[in-house]
Amino acid sequence: MSTSSTPPSMPPAPPANAPQGFFPSTEERMPLPARDAMSPAQREAADAIIAGPRKAVFGPFIPLLRSPQLMGRIGDVGAYLRFESPLDARIRELATCVAARHTANQFEWVMHAPLAVAAGVAQSTVDAIAEGRQPRGMADDEAVALDLAFEVLRQHGCSDATYAAAVKTFGEQGVVELVSLVGYFVMVCWVMNVARTPALAKPGVAPLSAFPA
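-> C-alpha cells emitted (213 positions)
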C-alpha cells in the first residue's frame, strides 16, 4: 500500500465538555501522530483506512494506530459488521447506540445517533436510550434487537425467551452478527475511553450526559 507523504485525513474538532466515559479530563492521551513520525507499518495501516469506506483515520483508529497490525484486523472486522452484514441498517445503528450509551462513549454516540435516525430508528427511541429509559413503540425487530443487546451487556448472555425471539427474527447468523456488533463497538469504545479520543463535532447532536448518581 502507498507510503506517500500525503498526511492522514484529520477529524474535525470535538464538541466542548464531552469527556469520554464521563471522566473529569478531556486531554487526549493518544493523539494522531504526524505522518513523518509514523513507522512504515503505521503509514501503511493509515493508508489502508483512508482507502477504505471510512476515508480517514479518526475515532478508534487514532489510538489503534499504536498497534498497526491489530488496527488493520479490527478495521476489517468493523468494516464487515458496519457495511456488509446482512442485518438491516436500522438494527446495526440501534445496537451501536446501545453500545455507545453503555460505555459512555461520546465519539460513537455523536457519530451513530444521527445515523440511526437516518436509517429509520425513531428519534424518540434514540432519545430514550440516551436518557436511560425503555423506548416505547418500536418496530418488532428493533425491540428484539434491543432486548438482546441490553441482556448481553448487562448479564453477559441472554434468556431463552430472548434468544428464541432473536433467532426467529434474525436467524442464527443474524444473532451471531448482532452480538458481535455490540461487542465490537464496546471494544472500540473502551479503547477510545482509555485514550480520551475526542468526539467529532456534529451540529445539532448533543453529547451524552451522565445518569444521575
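The chain has two domains: 31-84, 89-189.
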